[in-house]
Design brief:
This protein has 470 residues and is an all-alpha fold. The longest helix has 41 residues. The chain has a two-stranded antiparallel sheet. Helices cover 69% and strands 3% of the residues.
Length: 470
């Protein structure tokens, strides 16, 4: 066993040090992402959002209408959400095919940005590994292949990190990063918090001069676009402004009559819990990485470098703020409960970068209270993911074969697990459809904890043997 372990370790060491090995792995991840995106671009049915972005964008970019024009199309999102797809259609022809192919192109640009930034501030292999995590995330990649704004904002965010994250960056890159963060907010207003967080990070990590450049660059773009579309653009901000600040802009408030958006209707707590755990299931490494990094957060003196410490703080703050605000809007205010899962891909790559940058600095032997907290988090998370994935797991879990029993006697043959429990306890199929995947998630967490405990015990035993031999 020890000989096999040594050979495996030697193999991975050779692979890590082989020339171009990480680059080849990253290229393969990109090809998987591309093939998957191309498939979904052709397989998915057209969505309403795609139609509105593409149609309005083409009308705006060809001058038939202007954003926020009276009696024109409803500009219910920031102008760049429509103008960017419009420019793509102007260059390559109108239609859904252009919009989806353009999204695939932006997705590949996003992967390139992730590779570049992680290679610089983490390592080549972490960069390749994160690309593979992104390549096999089917749920997010399906969204990124559609002609909607998730991939546009995510691509912009990734390049903001390329330009500004890490050690001392050239001022021209800081300026471009600040401008790009503002353009991202002018594509989707929900990404606006990135702008002040970026300015604070640059000011903290790279000094007042770089901070002033980032502030000026972002401010010029934000103010310029708002002046261009003043005052009607303020109608997009009114729902999120405190009542005391809405007065001067009440005349430009977006009116929808007496209609009630289906997405804004009240849903019960169980539905909200399901959506919350579904979002975590699709973005597990990003969101669980944030919590795990907090549990295993080391003292500042134990970080690999000051650059990694400040980068991690910025990434953690960005992910926490954006996730918290979207939780508050989608689930807390019931703005669009089922939208929460599709909101996360706007910024979930932030959590992937967070894990890659901070992992080497995490506590390897945390105190007992942190170990207990990590174990509790694991159990709660796997249980919640089981519940959040019951629609995907129910067919498999419910139909697991179990022995037939009567009067505590085992009978020949088997029956489905749900039938056995329904007959034994009188539980309904609808209850078991949610309960069994949830219990399965809990048991998976217990199994993972047992495996981790066994691995730690084995490592300690090996260390003791080596010390005795010495």
């Amino acid at each position: 066993m020890e000989r096999m372990t040594e050979k495996t370790s030697e193999f991975w060491q050779r692979l890590r040090t082989a020339r171009w090995s990480a680059e080849i792995a990253a290229l393969l991840a990109g090809l998987v992402f591309f093939a998957q995106s191309l498939y979904y671009a052709h397989a998915n049915q057209v969505t309403m959002d795609e139609g509105t972005y593409l149609t309005k964008g083409l009308l705006y970019i060809t001058g038939v209408y202007q954003p926020f024009q009276d009696y024109g199309p409803w500009t219910n999102k920031m102008p760049l959400a429509f103008l960017i797809p419009g420019w793509a259609q102007l260059a390559f022809g109108p239609g859904l095919r252009t919009g989806r192919y353009f999204s695939i192109f932006l997705g590949l640009l996003m992967l390139l940005a992730v590779w570049l930034v992680l290679r610089r501030i983490s390592s080549r292999w972490w960069a390749a590994g994160i690309l593979w995590v992104m390549a096999i995330n089917v749920g997010n990649n399906m969204l990124y292949s559609l002609a909607i704004t998730q991939v546009i904002a995510a691509c912009m965010l990734a390049w903001v990190f390329v330009l500004c994250l890490g050690g001392k960056r050239p001022l021209w890159q800081i300026a471009l990063g600040g401008m790009l963060s503002a353009l991202m907010a002018l594509t989707r207003e929900n990404m606006l918090p990135v702008v002040p967080l970026l300015v604070l990070y640059v000011l903290w990590a790279q000094g007042w001069k770089a901070g002033a450049v980032a502030t000026a660059a972002a401010g010029v773009v934000l103010v310029g676009i708002h002046v261009l579309y003043w005052p009607k653009i303020m109608g997009l901000w009114l729902p999120w402004l405190p009542l005391a600040l809405r007065g001067p802009f009440s005349a430009v408030e977006l009116q929808v009559g007496d209609a009630t958006l289906i997405s804004a209707q009240t849903t019960n707590l169980q539905t909200k819990w399901y959506v919350f755990w579904e979002g975590l299931r699709y973005n597990f490494l990003a969101l669980a990485g944030l919590v795990t990094a907090g549990i295993l957060w080391p003292a500042r003196r134990n970080w690999k470098s000051e650059e990694r410490f400040k980068s991690t703080v910025f990434l953690a703050a960005t992910l926490a703020v954006l996730t918290g605000l979207h939780l508050w809007a989608a689930l807390g205010k019931s703005y669009c409960v089922y939208c929460y899962t599709v909101y996360l891909p706007f910024f979930s790559l932030t959590g992937l970068l967070l894990v890659a940058v901070s992992f080497d600095s995490w506590l390897r032997r945390p105190p007992v209270w942190r170990q207990a907290l990590a174990a509790l988090f694991l159990l709660v998370t796997t249980t919640g993911i089981g519940f959040g994935g019951y629609q995907a797991l129910d067919d498999w879990v419910l139909n697991l074969p179990v022995p037939r029993m009567r009067n505590m006697r085992i009978l020949p043959g088997t029956t489905d697990l749900w039938r056995f429990l329904a007959n034994r306890f009188g539980w309904s199929f609808e209850l078991l459809q949610q309960l069994l995947p949830t219990v399965f998630g809990l048991l998976a967490g217990v199994l993972i904890l047992a495996l981790v405990a066994a691995a730690v015990r084995s490592e300690e035993h090996t260390s003791e043997l080596q010390s005795h031999s010495f």
